Amino acid sequence: MSNNEVLIRKLTIQDIKNVIELQKESFPSMLEEGSVWRDYHLKSHIEIFSDGQLCAQYGDKIIGSSSSLIVKLDPPYREHTFSEATGNSMFTNHTNYGDTLYGADVSVHPSFRRLGIATKFYDARKEIAKKYNLRRIIAGGRLVNYYKYATTFTPEQYVEEVIKQNIADQVLTFQLANGFKYIKILPNYIKDSRSLNYATFIEWLNPYYQN
Asked: What DSSP line would sit under 175-211, residue for residue?
């Protein structure tokens, strides 16, 4: 398949069933721990901020999804959990008066990875930030390979090794390649056995932002 055959579009209520199945395929370890979207989460996301909810369609199949909301962190680099950042996964803390697009989730079906679909989602998020004149995009990035190195490195040391390209972490390596900057570690971010609950606070500054 060609990357150009993949359509990135807004998520609809009719897509929810397919996205639930996609989440199960994309995050099997997190499914076991109860950390994936349910139908009522996705309905709430669409109702609250439809522009931030996207999916990737190839033919008649949904092969990826992306969820985001607008927030205002005070102070702007405070530690937080996934639950705090996303209104307990319901996006009820979304505010049109915020200055930040929060990237809550990107999922791509395992059979369609390494084809540039996640990059398409990140590019689409950057366009949302420009459309709403947001100062930045931030996210908590799971350290998906940290469990392999936890006896050798602290989370901070692990990130430095990834930045130096001594270790590949499919999430952080991808985020850095897409223009995001590592800020700090977020402990107890989300229940996840692979990352040992750690995440990175990452940030992309919108060069078109007008104060």
From this structure: HHHTT-EEEEEETT-S--TTTTT-EEEEEEE-TT---
